[in-house]
Fold this protein.
Amino acid sequence: MKIVFATNNQNKLSEIRNILGSEFEIVSLHDIGCTEDIPETGNTLEENALIKARYVYNKYGLSCFADDTGLEVEALGGAPGVRSARYDGITDHDSEANMRKLLRELGDNNNRKAQFRTVIALLLKTSNQLISHTFEGKIEGHIALTKQGTAGFGYDPLFVPIGYQQSFAQLGMDIKNQISHRARAVKQLADYLKQLNS
Ligand code: IMP
C-alpha cells in the first residue's frame, strides 16, 4: 500500500518507515513533486494535521497522513500549543528564541508541568470510500529551569519526561524515540494500518 506522509522531514520519514516495515510504501511530499509550503492555518493540532492531509488528497488524489505537534504548558494555559513552531512571534522554527520566550513566560513559577502532544490525521482511499481517522500520542513531563543537553531539536533541552531526571536532549534519540509523543502516535497509526491490511 502506498501512502504519502505530508512531510519532507527525513527523521520523521525514517521513524515511520522503521515502524511500518515493507508492507507499506511511505513517500514524502518531495517524492510526489509537491514543493508548496502547505499553510498551517488551523487553531488546533487536529485542524492543522487535517488541513495538510486534505491538501495532499485533494490535489494528488493519494492516500495521505500528516502530523502536527505542540508543547502544552499547564501554567501557560496550554501555550505554546499549536503555535509551538513560532512561539517567539518573529521567525518560524527558531528554537533558541522559542525556548527563551518559554523560560521568560514561566519565570520562577513552581508549576512547570507540560506535555508534548502529536496528532496524526489519516485520509485513506479504499475501493469504495474515503476513511478519515486521527491518532494522538502524548508524553507528560516538566519544563527545566535552564536548557540541558544538545541532542534532538525544538524544545528538547527544556523538556524532562515524567520518570526521568534528564531532558529529551540529554536522553538522546534512542530513548526519546521509544517514549515520545510522536512515537506513540505513529505506533497507533501503524497498528491501525496493519490491522486494515491483514
Ligand atoms: P511540527 O508539528 O512537528 O512541525 O512541530 C512544531 C514545533 O513543535 C517544532 O517547530 C518544534 O519547535 C516543536 N516540536 C515538535 N516536536 C518536538 C519534539 O519532539 N521535541 C521538541 N520540540 C518539538
Notes: Residues 68-69, 84-85, 93, 95, 98, 152-156, 168, 180, 182 surround inosinic acid (CB under 6 Å).
